[in-house]
Amino acid sequence: MQTQSGFELVELKGGGRSIRSLAHGETMHIGTNPRTEALVLHIRQQRLRERVAEWIAVSPFVIWDIGLGPAGNAITAIEELRGTTVPVEMHSFEISTEVLEFALNHAEALEYLSGWESVIAQLLEEGEAFPLPNVRWLLHRGDFSKEAAQGRLVAHAPSAIFFDPYSPARNIEMWNLETFRAIWKAVSAPEAPDCLMTNYTRSTSVRVTMALGGWFVGTGVATGDKTETTIAANRLELLERPLDAAWIRRVRSSTNATSIRGRNEVNGPISPEDFATLKALPQFARQVPSTAERAEIVD
Q1: Do residues 92 and 74 make contact, with C-beta atoms less than 8 angstroms apart?
Q2: 3-state DSSP helix/strand/coil % of the chain, to nearest 5
Q3: Helix (H, G, I), strand (E, B) or coil at 50
C-alpha cells in the first residue's frame, strides 16, 4: 500500500490494484478492476466500437467522460477504438487531476495505464492529446456541476456519456436534479444524436432524479458485486430494459426515493408532487400497469 496526496493503492479482492481516496473514503472500481469495470459498464454496454463504426455524420463522434478520475474509463475506451477510423472527440471532465497524477506515478502497478504514460502526461500539461490518429482527447478542469448549471459546457453534444463521479454520499452536487437537467439540455435538441449515459448506481433516488431531469432511464448490466446498474438515454427506444410500471410501484413504497436537489442529500420517500410528475412522464404514462400495480400506484 502506497500513500500520496490523499490517495493510496489498494489490493482488490478479485486481483489487481485500484486507488482509494482518503478524503472521500471510497475505493474506485471496488467490485472488480478499472479495465474490466470500464469494459462491462460503459464500453460494451454502450456498444461503443460498433456505434463509432456506424457513425456517418461529418462531425466527430463525441464522448463525455464525466469524472475522469484515474482515467480507467477513458483509457479503456481508447484501447477499444484501436483500428477505427471515424473521428472521435472525447471530453473528460474533472474538478481536480490529483488522482490522475497519482495514477500516473503508479502506472506500472495499476497496469491499465502502462504504455499510456506519455499521453496522460501530455493531457495533463496541455489539456489535449491524440492517443490514436482519429481520437482527440480534451481535458476540462473545474466543477462540472457548476459549469453545467450555468450553461458553460463547451463540449459538443455527446453520443456517449460515462457518468462516473464519486457517490452521492460524498459528491451530492454531481447527482442532483440541476446537474441531470443541464446534461439533458445538451442532448435533448431534435437534431442531437442518439445518446446513452451509463453509471454504476442502482439507487432509486438517483433514478428518480434522472427521470425528473428529463432522461429515459433503464436497468443496466451487472458489474463486480452489483447485480444491476443504471443506463439512461435521450430516446426511449435506445433502452433494452427501460424502467416500467413495476418500478413505479416500488418507487411508491420506497423509503429512499426522494429526488436529489441542491447540495443537501435528504433520504426518504418520494413526495406526492414528484410522484405525480414521475407517473406522467412519457416513459411511464403510456404504460398499462396490471390491476395489482394500479392498486399500488394510485394515491
Answers
A1: yes
A2: 35, 20, 45
A3: helix
* Residue 67 in domain: yes
* Cβ 16 vs Cβ 111: under 8 Å: yes
215 vs 102: CA distance, rounded Å: 34
Can you read off the three cell numbers belonging to residue 240? 433494452
C-alpha atoms less than 13 angstroms from C-alpha of 2 in its C-beta half-sphere: 10
Task: Examine residue 173 and state whether it is found in any structural domain, yes or no.
Answer: yes
**Structural domain containing residue 170:** 29-246
Say if 290 falls within a structural domain. no
Residue 286 domain-assigned?
no
**DSSP line for 15-42:** SSEEEEETTTTEETTTTS-HHHHIIIII
What is the pLDDT of the chain when averaged over all its residues? 90
Torsion of CA 59, 65, 70, 76, to 10 degrees: -60
Whole-model pTM: value is 0.91
Give the total number of structural domains in the chain.
1
Which tens digit of pLDDT belongs to each residue from 10-54? 877 766 787 878 877 777 665 677 889 999 999 999 999 999 999
